[in-house]
Amino acid sequence: MFYLASRIACLARRLSEKAIAMSRRGKSAVMLGADCLALPLCVELAMLMRSSPLAPLSATLLLSAVSAAALAMSDLYGAVLRYLEQRMLARAAFGMAIAVLCIHLLTLDQATHYPAGALVTYWFVALAYLVASRVAVCSLLQRLSGPPPQAREAVAIYGAGDAGAGPGAPQGAPPPVRPGGVF
Question: What does 94-136 look like in DSSP terms, one character per residue?
Answer without folding.
Answer: HHHHHHHHHHHHHTTTSTTPPPTTHHHHHHHHHHHHHHHHHHH
